[in-house]
């Protein structure tokens, strides 16, 4: 009995710390990155043809930071209600009686998470479409279809999960609870798989382009930039992927500590990972500011290449240049 009470107290303490301190610290880092990105986007307005793209990027970044801000506000309100207003109810702040008073907050948070999560997944899907557009490879269309399928499957399962969680009272039924748990696990798995596969698709395309450059010109500083982009993508998305996997393990093991910590901070980790990619691209950390200029000035006739696809010229390899919101140097912002 004493051990159970101690574990319950530790779980409550960890939940409170996650809702306030951990979420607040992660949000601070995300907001700093947002401000730095906004500054870089503002500098991009000096370029005459960059206003439309800059406006779109700024609006998208602002929507993401608003989502993160809502998550912080909802978490703090949630913590105030269950840990301050109704802490003395039977079962404590994490008990069913206290949770009944935060159903509205949970509903708003569920909708917010659904919109924000699908927006980030949608941007990743858009990156796949952009980087595979223009290529004459036979696998380009199947790859784009597969990526779209994963996104639609994730969105459908996420919506189903949101609908089922809308009525907390129904969770009291064991059969219903098992169905919801199954849907939740499948949705989580599909979301993680979708992110990993689409990232691998982008990385594979970049490495293929790099190999073509090496065949044409040998190893140069330009080809090294592709490795920088690949490393940036892997580093940035590894954070959110590892976070989701850790939460999945905690959920399957029925570990309340892991569930509280990873689930409550998951939104902020997703936003932080997203802004890490943007900042490193716009600041030129992963793509030298002269790289696109050098690539765009190189034109190779079909007879000068020994690639398997003789119809490919440097225009196809330069397809990356057509996707400034995805991988652009500071000058293309």
From TrEMBL:
Entry keyword set: Membrane, Transmembrane, Transmembrane helix
Organism expressing this protein natively: Agaricus bisporus var. burnettii (strain JB137-S8 / ATCC MYA-4627 / FGSC 10392) (White button mushroom)
Name recorded for this polypeptide: Uncharacterized protein
Highest taxon of the lineage: Eukaryota
Bilayer-crossing regions: 13-37, 58-81, 101-124, 145-166, 182-208, 229-253, 265-282
Lineage: Eukaryota, Fungi, Dikarya, Basidiomycota, Agaricomycotina
